[in-house]
């Protein structure tokens, strides 16, 4: 990126800037005429200067121009104008003045819109350039950079720069020419008034910028302090577990409080300087009209200046301070954004980046990685200069299965990271097939080498999206869309240096993977997950997922069929009492009162939590079913019981979770409601209190909470109200916020497991959950639905950083993500640390078989784990030695190893 912001702006917006320049220049004559007209209105129309010597009419709107002396001089008249009286001249000139005001306003509108569009396009380009540069950070840079600070730079710190970009060249030209035009007009009317205005302007341009330099320095300090505050808050959030484990909340609050005080002090000082500058600027702007009135009036009284000229001068000066003030503001903003820009590019210096020619994927370098893997005089040291790997050279054949054995030191993992180009601070040379590892293009290395480290990086999204992340290298086929929106998007992308690639394009090369389509890819993913023991996890994720009858009609039909088969199999095994089915004509004791009333799953806030209690359709059904008072009374009884149980319990007690009606911090509010009930009765409660009690009642489940609040009369009344509710819901604005249960179709909003059960597992029966789920699995297998359920499981959302997955599941996803792209070289560095010893051994054996004809490098704890590997690099502290594995049993391996130029040693 350019070190000069102005050079960066001009390089990418020269054509647009010149177009706006042309509009600015075209606006100047109209602006000058708008300054001239008030003088003519006063002198010619009001004072009658055009009607001297007894004339009763004057010509208006003459269109003519003077020829220069070189062309013989004279005047060419294009339109002789209209003959008007004094009143007509007044209205004509006034109308012309209004027209010029509108024209000048239109020019300003066009210029400002063009500036805004230019600024937004350049801001988009700048943000994308910074993001693209972030992707080029070297591994050593990534170890020191704070992600929150980088995000703050790209999102927030460039915002004021983007606002300035549109003004960078246009604003000084526009404002400068306006101010110069007004100043020239004043000088033409009276030299002394012009010089007076110029003197005041000169004082403004000298004093104000000097005062604002202090403001700029403070602004720079504020920007750095804000960035550090954001970085520190991100560190605390990332380490929140340690904060709570060690009770460091008070310490962290004190530190953030200190930082906020420092930031407040800087901002307050900036405010004081800002308003001091504003005061002086306004003072100078107001002194000048005083001088104009005094001196100009004096000159008018002396006959040295006519009234029209004085009015025109005052009108022209009225237009002079705003552009001058904005010019001074522009100069301050220029200095401010240049400082910001300088600070930003300090975070993206070339020495922090992978060279551009290495980063940009070259089509000609898209071949596989092959050839011997070698290191010449490799030396690695830690940041303090202590050796991690002493001078070490080796050459390994391709393919090879290499184990790097450590003694607990950092050497093995660091060497593995060097081979994966995830560690770039080393001396010596590492090559693959004779090519320097550091010069292999990012694209080729990313497609043909995989690295699985101990800390997998997962992204928010589905399990599937994380698994295929390494397959989306470049679009295979672009979406053919020639609609106006697509054309506009493509045009804007090209104008702002953004990619024209779209997420809707086809990014995955199914042919290379040996599958036909996305469905075949899902099968490939499931097979890989099965080999690392994760398929059962994906099956469970699938049961928690949702099936759309619109997008997956075939699966939806099979789910309804499986539902019937499950019911019969439960009956065959005598387990029908473990699941109470949803029946439109019966009350389901295992569901809450609210769920029984709605008989469906909410897809919006209108039918969840307290929104359900205030929903007009729900209240209408309860009123018509004569249930409102009964349920409010149940809510009051629940409140009474809960306050008695929880009164002396600390927040977080398990009973709060079991009953889950009232949060600990809400207890005092409900105690107040009980006091009002005791004093005046339920009927006297206001609508808000009644809604809160109703919300408690709607969450009540008799078998779970066991308060004995439901009888058969109420159950029948709730089922009857269900019919009223459904009738009222049909055609209402709330209909789309509830997905109703239907025995003959799936409920799109309900989990797949609930759709299969179409009921609720009974509370309080020992082992009911596991017994029912075994029958569910049997039905799924019998009907051949397991793979379909697993494919639903691939849509499971993993959460930020994969936090909704267990550690071994995150490791498994990372492993499969590496394997599914079929790399030529796979480096395993702590990628199995989350697994138990036996499962890790099983996965390692599978990897050895998979990479029989490719390169596989694994960091292992000891030589006992190295069975099946072809070669070993064994560390003793920082010293490394290359050995051939005695366990290597592949035919011809010894001959290959002997023929290869294998050299291991220390400096």
Automatic annotation (TrEMBL):
Pfam annotation, one family: ABC_tran
One cellular component term from this protein's GO annotations in UniProt: plasma membrane
Nucleotide-binding recorded as keyword: yes
Annotated membrane topology: Multi-pass membrane protein
TM regions (residue ranges): 18-35, 87-107, 182-208, 279-301
InterPro entries tied to this protein: ABC1_TM_dom (IPR011527), ABC1_TM_sf (IPR036640), ABC_transporter-like_ATP-bd (IPR003439), P-loop_NTPase (IPR027417), Type_1_exporter (IPR039421)
Keyword tags: ATP-binding, Membrane, Nucleotide-binding, Transmembrane, Transmembrane helix
The UniProt record lists the keyword Lipoprotein: no
GO MF term (any one): ATP hydrolysis activity
Stretches assigned to the ABC transmembrane type-1 domain: 78-329
Cellular localisation: Cell membrane
Recorded superkingdom: Bacteria
Primary localization class, coarse: membrane
Matching PANTHER family: ATP-BINDING CASSETTE SUB-FAMILY B MEMBER 10, MITOCHONDRIAL, ATP-DEPENDENT PERMEASE MDL1, MITOCHONDRIAL
Protein name: Multidrug ABC transporter ATP-binding protein
Lineage: Bacteria, Pseudomonadati, Pseudomonadota, Alphaproteobacteria, Hyphomicrobiales
């Amino acid at each position: 990126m350019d070190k000069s912001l102005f050079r960066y702006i001009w390089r990418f917006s020269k054509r647009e800037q010149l177009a706006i320049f042309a509009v600015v220049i075209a606006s100047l004559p109209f602006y000058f005429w708008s300054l001239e007209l008030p003088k003519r209105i006063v002198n010619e129309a009001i004072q009658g200067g055009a009607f001297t010597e007894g004339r009763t009419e004057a010509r208006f709107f003459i269109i003519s121009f003077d020829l220069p002396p070189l062309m013989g001089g004279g005047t060419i008249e294009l339109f002789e104008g209209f003959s008007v009286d004094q009143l007509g001249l007044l209205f004509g000139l006034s109308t012309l003045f209004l027209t010029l005001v509108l024209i000048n306003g239109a020019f300003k509108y066009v210029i400002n819109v063009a500036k805004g569009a230019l600024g937004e396009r350049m801001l988009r380009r700048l943000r994308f350039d910074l993001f693209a540069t972030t992707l080029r950070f070297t591994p050593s840079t990534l170890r020191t950079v704070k992600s929150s600070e980088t995000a703050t730079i790209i999102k927030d710190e460039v915002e004021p720069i983007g606002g300035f970009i549109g003004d960078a060249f246009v604003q000084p030209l526009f404002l400068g020419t306006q101010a110069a035009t007004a100043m020239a007009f004043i000088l033409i009317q009276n030299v002394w008034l012009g010089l007076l205005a110029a003197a005041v302007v000169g004082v403004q341009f000298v004093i104000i910028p000097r005062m604002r330099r202090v403001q700029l320095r403070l602004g720079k300090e504020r920007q750095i302090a804000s960035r550090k505050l954001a970085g520190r808050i991100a560190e605390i959030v990332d380490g929140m577990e340690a904060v709570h484990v060690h009770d460091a909340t008070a310490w962290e609050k004190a530190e953030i409080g200190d930082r906020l005080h420092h930031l407040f002090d800087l901002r307050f000082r900036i405010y004081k300087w800002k308003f001091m500058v504003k005061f002086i600027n306004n003072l100078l702007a107001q002194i000048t009209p005083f001088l104009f009135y005094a001196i100009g009036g004096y000159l008018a009284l002396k006959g040295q200046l006519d009234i029209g000229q004085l009015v025109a001068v005052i009108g022209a000066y009225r237009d002079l301070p705003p552009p001058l003030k904005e010019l001074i503001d522009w100069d301050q903003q220029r200095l401010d954004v240049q400082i910001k820009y300088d600070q930003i590019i300090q975070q993206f210096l070339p020495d922090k980046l992978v060279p551009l020619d290495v980063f940009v994927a070259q089509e000609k370098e898209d071949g596989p990685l092959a050839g011997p893997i070698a290191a010449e005089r490799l030396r690695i040291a830690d940041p303090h200069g202590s050796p991690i790997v002493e001078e070490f050279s080796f050459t390994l054949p391709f393919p090879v299965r290499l184990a790097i054995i450590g003694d607990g030191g950092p050497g093995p993992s660091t060497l593995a990271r060097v081979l994966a180009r995830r560690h770039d601070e080393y001396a010596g040379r590492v090559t693959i097939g004779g090519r320097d590892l550091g010069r292999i293009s990012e694209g080729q290395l990313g497609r043909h080498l995989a690295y699985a480290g101990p800390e997998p990086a997962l992204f928010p999204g589905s399990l599937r999206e994380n698994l295929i992340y390494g397959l989306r290298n470049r679009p295979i086929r672009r979406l053919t869309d020639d609609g106006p929106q697509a054309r506009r998007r493509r045009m804007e992308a090209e104008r702002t240096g953004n990619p024209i690639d779209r997420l809707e394009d086809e990014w995955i090369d199914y042919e290379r993977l040996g599958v036909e389509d996305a469905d075949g890819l899902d099968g490939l993913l499931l097979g890989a997950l099965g080999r690392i023991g994760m398929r059962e996890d994906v099956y469970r994720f699938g049961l928690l997922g949702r099936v759309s009858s619109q997008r997956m009609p075939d699966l939806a039909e099979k789910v309804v069929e499986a539902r019937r088969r499950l019911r019969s199999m439960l009956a065959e095994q005598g387990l029908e009492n473990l699941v109470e089915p949803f029946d439109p004509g019966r009350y389901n004791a295992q569901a809450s009162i609210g769920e029984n009333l709605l008989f469906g799953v909410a897809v919006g806030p209108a039918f969840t939590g307290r929104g359900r209690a205030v929903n007009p359709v729900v209240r209408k059904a309860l009123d018509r079913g004569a249930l409102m008072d009964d349920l409010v009374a149940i809510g009051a009884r629940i409140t009474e019981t809960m306050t008695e149980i929880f009164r002396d319990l600390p927040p977080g007690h398990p009973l709060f979770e079991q009953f889950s009606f009232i949060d600990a911090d809400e207890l005092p509010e409900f105690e107040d409601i009980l006091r009002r009930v005791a004093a005046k009765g339920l009927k006297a409660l206001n609508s808000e209190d009644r809604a809160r009690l109703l919300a408690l009642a709607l969450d009540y489940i008799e078998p779970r909470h066991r308060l004995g609040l439901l009888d058969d009369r109420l159950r029948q009344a709730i089922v009857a109200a269900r019919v009223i509710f459904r009738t009222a819901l049909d055609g209402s604005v709330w209909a789309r916020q509830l997905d109703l249960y239907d025995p003959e179709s799936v409920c799109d909003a309900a989990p797949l497991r609930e759709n299969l059960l179409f009921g609720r597992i009974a509370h309080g029966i020992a082992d009911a959950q596991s017994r029912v789920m075994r029958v569910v699995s049997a039905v799924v297998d019998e009907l051949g639905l397991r793979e379909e359920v697993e494919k639903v499981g691939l849509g499971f959302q993993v959460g930020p950083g994969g936090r909704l997955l267990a550690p071994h599941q995150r490791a498994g996803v990372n492993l499969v993500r590496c394997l599914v792209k079929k790399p030529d070289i796979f480096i395993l560095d702590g990628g199995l640390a989350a697994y138990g010893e036996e499962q890790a051994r099983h996965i390692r054996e599978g990897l050895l078989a998979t990479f029989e004809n490719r390169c596989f490098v694994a960091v292992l704890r000891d030589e006992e784990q190295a069975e099946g590997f072809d070669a070993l690099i064994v560390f003793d502290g920082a010293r490394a030695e290359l050995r051939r594995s005695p366990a290597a049993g592949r035919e011809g391996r010894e001959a290959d190893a002997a023929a290869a130029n294998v050299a291991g040693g220390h400096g």
